[in-house]
Amino acid sequence: MKLDRFEWLALRCEAAIEPDLAIVDPHHHLWDRGGSKYLAEQLLIDTNTGHNVVQTVFVDCMSKYDRSSKPHLQSVGETVFAAEQARRFSELGDARISGIVGFADLTSGVHLEETLDAHLAASSLFRGVRHATAWDASEEVPNAHTHPSAGLTSSSAFISGARMLADNQLSLDVWLYHPQLPELTALARENPKLTVILNHLGGPLGIGPYTSRREETRRVWREHMALLATCDNVFVKLGGFGLDNYFGMGWASLACPPDSVTVANHWGDDVRWCIDTFGPGRCMFESNFPVDRQSLTYMVLWNACKLMSTRYSIHERQELFAGTARRAYRLVQ
């Protein structure tokens, strides 16, 4: 699916709701590939649309790997790239990229320590690793870009690698699908000192064989998430709201992008359930841009987040929009 649909996105215009509310966007990507460009300059355009975005966190997307390095060190090139973009971004505006989450293969055994050391040496902004393990038995559901296998998160090699992250005071971001959530619960219990950050609401699938099983998916997803919430070391990113190609909302095929009320009405019940289950201090709103741009504008996305959270107190909303992200990623204000 083409991500840069600017003419279509321009059909939906809104003004920022609560423009003074400080936002830390804890999940965005940066790339220049395949005719799609999202670098510091493009991020600045989005963060300057009217919302008060003060800090962000870059998350791995296989940008600018150093293919001349040894295989286990190639991903360090992305941290070098992200650090340079962070410098550029701070020169362009007031907001800052305050954290970098890169990739390291947690199952790489003796090579993992060298990889982590190289990431840490590449940038003082390096905060953790994302090892995407999203896998499903259905051929209609795409697996993650790391080409994971079934049961990867619960393998002894992965658990050992996760323990090394904790020893280095680094966090683990996880992108998986809702049937895999029990594996993550086991991992979090096995590594209680590890900060685990679950991406995109825990991946409640709405495509392939799950298209006609939405209520069953919601029931199973909530059961798994409730168990995961018993692990105090787990944080949840409230986002992925525009992931039409995984969650199957149908927005990307509309004549006009959805407005913030439509987005808030679709996701609001599940988002509030997550907040009430994990607590505002363990939940953070995210943009997941430019991936979510396949069906939403940056303005609409953050307006929807604000609409979904109106029932919470000022302090709770400060956590949801900034405080939780700063704490989970140890961001310097």
Description:
With 333 residues, the chain is an alpha/beta fold. The protein has one domain: TIM Barrel, CATH 3.20.20. Helices cover 38% and strands 14% of the residues. The protein contains 11 helices and 10 strands. The chain has helices spanning 6-9, 40-47, 76-92, 112-122, 156-167, 181-190, 214-228, 244-247, 260-278, 298-308, 314-329; strands spanning 22-28, 31-33, 36-38, 52-59, 96-102, 126-130, 171-174, 196-198, 234-238, 283-285. Strands 1-4-5-6-7-8-9-10 form an 8-stranded parallel β-sheet. It has a two-stranded antiparallel ribbon with strand order 2-3. Strand 4 (52-59), helix 3 and strand 5 (96-102) form a beta-alpha-beta unit. Helix 6 runs parallel beside helix 7 and helix 9 packs across helix 10 (298-308). The two termini are 36 Å apart. 49% of the residues are buried. The model has no long low-confidence stretch (mean pLDDT 96).
